[in-house]
Write a structure and sequence with these properties.
Layout (H helix, E strand, L loop, with lengths): L4 E6 L8 H10 L6 E6 H4 L18 H11 L3 E7 L7 H8 L9 E8 L4 H13 L3 E3 L3 E3 L14 H17 L7
Length: about 180
């Protein structure tokens, strides 16, 4: 049996971000049994959605969109490492989601948020979008500035956060897409 393919997406694209530190913590906790890939939205550098056709058609003109489609189709489970900005999730993440449509259907996704309130507001807002594109949303931990996360990106997660992360991975593993689902 093949290992489920897990993709971790670093959602923040800001010049002085800390999302990559949180992603390092997340990826260091991935249990054996997953084939891991990390996607950094800053490296993908998507312009605001510029495809001439609606994403629901699956007709992609730009090479970057076709590559993003292939990357997501090659994923069996997804983790979004996401900041909370002004009680919402960031525009780069929304844009990356909006580039595709059918690729998201049935894909289990866990959200690891970070911010002053553990990204609770952003995760709740994002849930609506993820459910709209028919993803299966799995609960994930939220790191809180000055408690479980330093503003410099130092992760200070405790046992409760690690337990929540482990539970998220277990649920992603149990609901991961199989070759027949793709």
């Amino acid at each position: 049996m093949t290992q489920p393919r897990l993709s971790v997406v670093i959602a923040s694209t800001r010049p002085h971000r800390i999302g990559h530190h949180v992603a390092d913590w997340v990826t260091s906790q991935v249990p054996d049994g997953f084939d891991l890939t990390v996607h950094d939205l800053r490296e993908w550098a998507f312009p605001l959605l510029d495809e001439p056709e609606q994403p629901s058609t699956g007709i992609y003109t730009h090479e970057k969109t076709r590559a993003w489609s292939e990357a997501i189709r090659a994923t069996d489970a997804l983790v979004l490492v996401m900041p909370e900005y002004n009680r919402g999730y960031n525009a780069a993440l929304k844009n990356a989601i909006d580039y595709l449509y059918a690729e998201w259907e049935g894909l289990p996704v866990g959200c690891v948020g970070y911010g002053w309130y553990g990204a609770s507001y952003a995760k709740e807002a994002l849930r609506q979008t993820l459910e709209r594109v028919k993803m299966t949303v799995v609960d994930g931990p939220g790191l809180v500035f000055e408690k479980t996360l330093g503003q410099d990106g130092e992760v200070r997660a405790g046992a409760e956060d690690e337990t929540a992360l482990a539970a998220m991975f277990a649920e992603l593993d149990a609901s991961a897409r199989t070759p027949l689902d793709r």
